[in-house]
Amino acid sequence: MQYTNKLNLPQAIVEAVKNDDYDSGDSFLTATQLNKPVQMVRLEKQYANQIIEDISDNIYALMGKAIHYILEKAESVMPVEKRIYTEVLGKKISCQLDRLALISKDGGFTGKVQDYKFASVWQYIYGLNKEYEEQLNIIAYILTRNGYKVNELEIIMIFRDWQKSKTKYDKSYPQEQVAVIPVKLWNQDKQEKFITDKIQQHESKDCPQCTQEERWNSGDKYAVMKKGNKKALRVLNTEAEAYLWIEDNKKGDYIEIRKGENKRCDSYCKISKWCSQYQGLIK
């Protein structure tokens, strides 16, 4: 990884971003890598020394690390190691745990995996990212294989862009700056199948391309247009809905297809410049 500092930010910030102490050990794949698109992980490894990021693009990540550090110091007991390993299909996989809490419940104890996310409010409003659920279930599987009992999963979401004023008139907006979100715990067979499938994909000679969901594609839209106007009369999710709207409203001369944006590729993928799939999509 190489860094630029286009905004000439203070050296303390530069060093804090560059001095990342993350260590995946001798893992074949980590929990984070297992729940990312296979193609992305492969290209990140292949072009690791050529990736260039600006320091300013890492500020949110830096703040998230700071929150984790503070919470770690505040925790009186860390019941498990920092990095935990197991083997699947002869490959070593691992996870780095935020917190495994032993919560008293119904006369006994339940193991609750808690993952802290420093996130945008939009991640809450639009619904929990599927990859969060996958990652926590990978962690649960690794913990179970190491003798820990996991009964519950949850995400502690701390909102970096929360505004109190918006809570008064928008009920879908998070009402507090932090939210505790339960995550579905899969059975062990489903967890193992997910992990096994991912390992096999990583070992395959043929690299699977990123799916529409993995690209965070917003989906194509169909705009009902009137000749001579640049602004759409109506924008709908399907072509059939667009034709039906024209028929019902007796308006519109043609339908314009507006291709969905690949939001992850456009803004959040470090290796999109080397990705033949993405380069083909933007031609």
CATH topology grouping of the largest domain: Lambda Exonuclease, Chain A
| Count of spatially separate domains | 2
Integer average pLDDT: 89
Please state the oligomeric state of the protein chains shown.
single chain
Q: Summarize the helix and strand pattern as letters.
A: EHEHHEHEEEEHHEEHEEHEHH
CATH architecture classification name of the largest domain: Alpha-Beta Complex
Which strand-content bin applies to the residues? 15-25%
Largest sheet: 4 strands, mixed
Task: Pick out the low-confidence regions.
Answer: 77-81
In total, the number of strands is 12
3D structure, described in words:
With 283 residues, this protein is of the alpha/beta class. The protein folds into 2 domains: 202 residues, Lambda Exonuclease, Chain A; 61 residues. The protein contains 10 helices and 12 strands. The strands form 4 sheets. It has a 4-stranded mixed β-sheet. A hairpin with an 8-residue loop joins strand 10 and strand 11. The radius of gyration is 22 Å and the shape is globular. The chain starts with a strand and ends with a helix.
For this entry, give a set of tags.
283 residues; alpha/beta; Lambda Exonuclease, Chain A; four-stranded mixed β-sheet; three-stranded mixed β-sheet; 10 helices; globular
How would the blueprint of this fold be written?
Layout: E1 2-4, H1 11-18, E2 29-30, H2 31-34, H3 38-46, E3 52-54, H4 59-74, E4 83-88, E5 91-96, E6 99-105, E7 108-119, H5 121-125, H6 130-145, E8 152-159, E9 178-183, H7 188-203, E10 221-225, E11 234-236, H8 239-249, E12 254-258, H9 263-268, H10 276-281
Helix pairs in contact: 6-7
